[in-house]
């Protein structure tokens, strides 16, 4: 059975990493049996090294200053140990060709070329904006309640490096929080416009038609991540899925939710 490495939290959805969500969605969509190996956030490098997993980067190029990150995956059926979400997605397609191929660019109408380029680029900037701006309004929830002890201290250090201030000072910045939420709302609206343009060309219930593609992994990750952090009883979450963009995000969530099981 495939083992997916992730770190646990006390958040409603237990899991936090955006990049792990991409792989979890892919595994569930492909119907591949797997289990999660939970490792402490502050001991990711130690535990991955112990398990013989390779680093996800040759040099630390991210804000976290580490080469070892989740997701990491061990597939005993092929004796493969691999890290980094992009590499894992490609591996899953190559190793399991009978499953839905998520990294293959679909054959589409020429009118969709510009839209496909946005969704299948190295990183869909809209998805990043949808997550980042709303997530920054929830940092205190993660640092104060989602993680404990050394895990919380290490995560706090990294988030404060990104925010350029302390978590407490950031959460007291009412104007900054309102601006973040506004930018997040604008990103969701832009993504909804993107989806609407795509639907007018081909129809279908998914981002590029009747079949799930990598674009749906990106969008699904946004919703799964926010649901995990906020919780489905949260006021903001219910505004997003019920009120934003005439409730279309709720429709999309009902479609993708079946693939968000944390096993």
Automatic annotation (TrEMBL):
Coiled coil: none annotated. Signal peptide: none annotated. InterPro entries: Glutathione-S-Trfase_C_sf, Glutathione_S-Trfase_N, GST_UstS-like_C, Thioredoxin-like_sf. It comes from the Eukaryota. One of its GO terms (biological process) is glutathione metabolic process. Residues 7-100 form the GST N-terminal domain. One of its GO terms (molecular function) is maleylacetoacetate isomerase activity. It holds the Pfam family GST_N_2. This is GST N-terminal domain-containing protein. It comes from Ephemerocybe angulata.
């Amino acid at each position: 059975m495939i083992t997916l490495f992730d770190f646990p939290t006390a958040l409603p959805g237990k899991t936090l990493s955006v990049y792990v969500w991409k792989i979890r969605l892919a595994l569930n969509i492909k119907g591949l049996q797997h289990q999660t190996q939970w490792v402490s956030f502050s001991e990711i490098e130690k535990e991955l090294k112990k398990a013989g997993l390779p680093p996800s980067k040759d040099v630390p190029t991210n804000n976290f200053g580490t080469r070892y990150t989740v997701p990491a995956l061990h597939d005993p059926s092929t004796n493969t140990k691999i890290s980094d979400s992009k590499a894992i997605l490609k591996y899953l397609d190559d190793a399991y060709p009978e499953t839905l191929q998520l990294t293959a660019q679909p054959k589409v109408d020429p009118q969709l070329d510009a839209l496909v380029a946005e969704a299948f680029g190295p990183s869909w900037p809209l998805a990043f904006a949808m997550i980042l701006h709303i997530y920054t309004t929830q940092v205190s929830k993660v640092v104060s309640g989602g993680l404990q002890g050394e895990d919380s201290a290490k995560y706090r250090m990294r988030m404060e490096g990104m925010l350029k201030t302390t978590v407490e000072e950031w959460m007291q910045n009412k104007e900054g929080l309102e601006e973040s939420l506004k930018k997040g709302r604008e990103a969701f609206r832009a993504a909804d416009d993107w989806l609407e343009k795509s639907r007018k060309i081909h129809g279908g219930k998914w981002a590029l038609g009747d079949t799930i593609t990598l674009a749906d992994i990106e969008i699904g990750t946004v919703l799964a991540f926010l649901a995990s952090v906020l919780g489905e009883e949260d006021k903001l979450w219910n505004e997003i899925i019920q009120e934003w963009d005439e409730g279309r995000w709720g429709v999309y969530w009902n479609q993708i939710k079946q693939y968000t099981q944390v096993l």
